[in-house]
Structure formats: C-alpha cells, structure tokens
Write a structure and sequence with these properties.
Number of helices: 3
CATH architecture of the largest domain: Sandwich
Order of helices and strands: HEHEEEEEEEEEEEEEEH
Number of domains: 2
Distance between the termini: 13 Å
Shape: globular
CATH topology of the largest domain: Jelly Rolls
Length: 230
C-alpha cells in the first residue's frame, strides 16, 4: 500500500511540474533564480563615457556573437560610480545606456543571438530619471511573448535595481528590452550584465520546486507519519 502511495504521489508531482511549465513564459526576478551559464559583459565595449555605435556586435563570455541595436542614435558605456552613473546598480557595475536624448528618449534594445537559441535571459535595469517605471522583455519565440516588472529608479548605489528575466519552454534567439512607462515620459534606460542560458545547456543552479510540488511531498510525509501511528 505504501509503495502504491509513493508511486501515485511521484506521478502527481510530475504532472504538476509539466502543467506549470508547458508552453509557459515565466518572469524571473533574480539573477540566482535565472541560473545563467553564459553572460554579456558591457565592459568589453570600452571605458565609461565611450560612445558605442548602433548597431554593434559583442562576444559573450562563452564566445557567442551577439548583435545589439536600438531604434536610433548611439549607445554609451557607463559605470555605476560617482560621476558616471549615480543609480541603484551595484558599485562598479559595467552598464550599457541607450543615451538617445536627441530622439526623445532611448531604446528599445534588441539583442539578437542569430543562429543560437536561448531558454532564459535576464539583467538588471534602471530608468534614467528617478522614480517609478515599468520594464518589459519580449522574446521572439513565434508568439512574441512578454513579461513585465515594476521598478523604482533611485540613486542609492546599492544593487537594488530590479532584475527582469524570462524563462521559456520554447527556445528563442532574439529579445527586446524596453520601458513601458517612466518618469518624465522619457524611456531611456541602462542595463548591467546580461545572463542567459543557451538551449541545451543546464542551469548553473537547480530551480526551487514549486509550492504545489512541495505540497505533494508534504502530503506524502503526512501519510507516512499517519501509517506509523497506526
């Protein structure tokens, strides 16, 4: 009887897991939760205040060529230090800024991995002007799925800039980063290191089981305890 109960609960856990992830695009709000296996370091583009052409190609830490572009105007490299970018990234973060005042704001940023495909992507983002903003990631997975997150831009220099990431069961090769709203109605923004997982790669950290699956195992534990009392 116990053996049948175990098999039933394990099967139930597997069904719950598939139900929650099949065909889903999930918002990821922490770098550790994303578990990236490769990354893009904007510091490779030059020192702070370097004007970066639009578009440009940069190699990821794992050697993947990535094309980055925006609607108009050049990008600019900044660092999270006094006199360069006084925001709420972590001190020393290498940033990419849309810097498009000449066209009334900046972005969105399109990051294209060409023939390579991903299952997850994420980074921290901050609006240029202080105050509340809403960020969006759109993945080119055949349905242009999106995730959004609300953030608050400050000058606290403490790493509190929101992390917005996406995990998809359908591999994608292009992602678009934008602000849906921001203070002063200007949509220019900066981002720090981008982490991602190429399709077929195993996340660097195991995902935490969902609340539902934890509930299944809790029920299993209760069943065993009840039988012990009997």
């Amino acid at each position: 009887m116990i053996r049948k109960t175990i098999l039933f609960l394990v099967a139930g856990a597997m069904i719950l897991s598939v139900t929650q992830t099949k065909g889903a695009v999930t918002l990821v709000t922490s770098r550790s939760g994303l578990g990236g296996t490769d990354s893009i370091n904007w510091g490779l583009l030059g020192n702070s205040f370097t004007s970066v052409p639009n578009p440009f190609v940069i190699l990821s830490n794992g050697g993947l060529p990535v094309t980055v572009s925006q609607a108009g105007g050049n990008f600019e490299r900044r660092d999270e230090v006094n006199g360069s970018w006084g925001g709420n990234f972590s001190p020393g973060d290498r940033l990419l800024w849309t810097d498009n005042f000449d066209v009334g704001g900046g972005g969105p940023i399109t990051i294209d991995f060409g023939s390579s495909s991903l299952t997850s992507f994420g980074l921290q983002i901050q609006a240029d002007f202080l105050g509340a903003f809403t960020a969006q990631l759109q993945v080119n997975d055949g349905s242009n799925s999106t995730v959004t997150e609300n953030g608050y831009s400050s000058g606290s220099d403490d790493g509190s800039a929101i992390f917005i990431g996406v995990s998809s069961s359908v591999p994608f090769s292009q992602i678009i980063i934008s602000l849906l709203s921001a203070n002063n109605n200007l949509d220019d923004f900066a981002v720090n290191q981008a982490d991602f997982i190429p399709a077929g790669s195993t996340p660097s950290a195991p995902e935490v089981p969902s609340v539902a699956i934890w509930g299944v195992f809790a029920a299993f534990g209760g069943c065993i305890a009840w039988r012990s009392r009997k």
